[in-house]
Automatic annotation (TrEMBL):
It comes from the Bacteria. Pfam families: Hydrolase. InterPro entries: HAD-like_sf, HAD-SF_hydro_IA, HAD-SF_hydro_IIIA, HAD_sf, PGPP1/Gep4. Signal peptide: none annotated. It comes from Fervidibacillus halotolerans. This is YqeG family HAD IIIA-type phosphatase.
Length: 176
């Protein structure tokens, strides 16, 4: 049961996810979370280093889409300057939004990774559907109230994985 929460990779930041990193894993598309994955949950627009990261991915031919549980206004305002599609109010970890994102990317599940900062939404949802999953360390220490509850549960799960030697913070390979 806990294996559904175990990511394939665990990195400190999306900036560790490079075109080379993805090529090694035969990944051609990314379904990425927004809040505390790409930027702080209360940052309205993408910072310059993130704009560069998206540009690097586009130049390498990596297809990308943002899939967020946040509202349309928030996700659209962040996504539009990047020129990438998005799905808001995604209801992760339910699978419908991940499958819709895959269709919008016109990708293959085995060549697409889900990137996110939460085990209970991003990683669980991606793993249930058979995507490669990449957990990132949250970019901020603050969260909305619902996420604070999830973080407590995730702390126990992460601790379990680390004690069992299945996962290390900043490591780009899990024990999956």
């Amino acid at each position: 049961m806990l294996k559904l929460f175990l990511p394939d990779d665990y990195v400190n930041s999306v900036h560790q996810i490079t075109p080379e990193f993805l090529k090694e894993r035969n990944i051609k598309g990314l379904i990425t979370d927004l809040d505390n994955t790409l930027a702080e949950w209360d940052r309205p627009l993408p910072p310059p280093n993130l704009i560069q990261w998206f540009q690097q991915m586009k130049e390498a031919g990596i297809q990308m889409i943002i899939v967020s549980n946040n509202n349309e206004k928030r996700v659209q305002a962040f996504s539009e300057p990047l020129g990438i599609p998005f799905i808001s109010r995604a209801k992760k970890p339910l699978g419908k939004s991940f499958l819709s994102a895959l269709k919008l990317l016109d990708g293959k599940k085995e060549e697409t990774a889900v990137v996110g900062d939460q085990l209970l939404t991003d990683i669980l949802g991606g793993n249930k559907l058979g995507f490669r999953t990449i957990l990132v360390t949250p970019v901020a220490d603050t969260d909305g109230w619902q996420t604070k509850i999830n973080r407590k549960i995730e702390g126990y799960i992460l601790s379990h994985f680390m004690k069992k030697g299945l996962l290390q913070r900043g490591n780009t390979e899990s024990g999956k």
